[in-house]
Amino acid sequence: NRQSNESRGALIVLEGLDRSGKTSQSNRLLSFLEGLGFSVEAWRFPDRNTCVGGMISSYLANKSELDDHTIHLLFSANRWEKRSLMESKLKSGTTLIVDRYSYSGVAFSSAKGLDIEWCKAPEIGLLAPDLVLYLDIPPEKAAERGGYGSERYEQLEFQQKVSQQYHILRDPTWQIVDARLPMEDVEKQLKELVLDSVTACRKGKSLSQLWL
Ligand code: FDM
Question: Quick check: CB of 59 below 6 Å from ligand 1?
Answer without folding.
Answer: no
